[in-house]
Amino acid sequence: MRTTILITSPDQWTAPGVELFQFAPIIPGGPDWFTKPVLIVMMSAVIAIALCWAAFARPKIVPWGWQGVGEYAYVFVRDQIARPSLGKDSDRWMGLLITIFLTVLIWNLMGVIPFVQYPVAANVNFAAALAFVVYALKLYLGVKHHGVRGYLRGIVHLEGLPGWAYALYAPMILAEVFVTSVFTHFIRLFANMFAGHLLIAFFSSVGFWFIFEQLSPLTAGLGVLGVLMTIVMTAFEIFIQFLQAFLFAMLAAIFIASGLHGSH
């Protein structure tokens, strides 16, 4: 459990807030950018590479151990994320999609790992950086396969609409494809991880304060409730972490497919 107690007086408890997401440089006097979230991102990359290496470096005919875990993850991403959007092109993009899925999943799970306890995607910069990579790839594929005019024409193809309706809907569709899509891609992930981390910190702080700091017959029940809610919210947060990794990778597959097929 992550406990963050802000004490303004000996008898006052203050709920944790945005200070949970503010970090000083790890090395005193070192570079300002080298903070705990950056270190976790580096650790996550090493973990993802190690997992894939352990699973696929020496594959056996009968999967066992890490290979079984790796193949399960691969089949899940292929069947539930890649094929529904990319169809016959899914195998070509599996390397990228499973990398995105594992990266976001490890980022998220770091929020419930003891002594780490920070989901990287709760920092909007990391979630946005990954989303903009997918966005740039979508535009590149659309222009490469269809040209600028062909790509735009495929996006705003509204057959059968009168001119006034086309003039109304075309800018809205273009705005959704080129502006709002990239923001909805990472804002969903960021908001869920931010809120979940804050809620777990809130309930763990309640439990810690009213059991260890201000224990009394009147407050013991509140402290126990805080501990129980921390356990429940942590379990729920793990489910959300998996779900958000799945949704982020699924949207990446959809955006890649839209670039390949030149359609909205």
Assign a percent range to the helix content. Answer: 55-70%
Shape, please?
globular
- How far apart the termini lie comes to 44 Å
**Residue fraction in strands:** under 5%
Find the structural class using helix and strand composition. Answer: mainly alpha
Mean pLDDT over all positions? 87
What Rg, in angstroms, do the CA atoms define?
Answer: 23 Å
H-E string: HHHHHH
Please explain how this structure is put together.
This protein is mainly alpha-helical. It has one domain (31-261). It has six helices and no strands. α2 crosses α3 and α3 (94-109) runs antiparallel to α6. The longest helix has 51 residues, at 163-213. Residues 1-9 have low confidence and may be disordered.
Q: Layout of helices and strands, plus pairs?
A:
Layout: H1 36-56, H2 66-86, H3 94-109, H4 124-155, H5 163-213, H6 220-261
Helix pairs in contact: 1-2, 1-3, 2-3, 2-6, 3-6, 4-5, 4-6, 5-6
Transmembrane segments: 38-57, 93-116, 122-143, 164-183, 189-211, 218-236, 242-260
Family: Belongs to the ATPase A chain family.
GO molecular function: proton-transporting ATP synthase activity, rotational mechanism
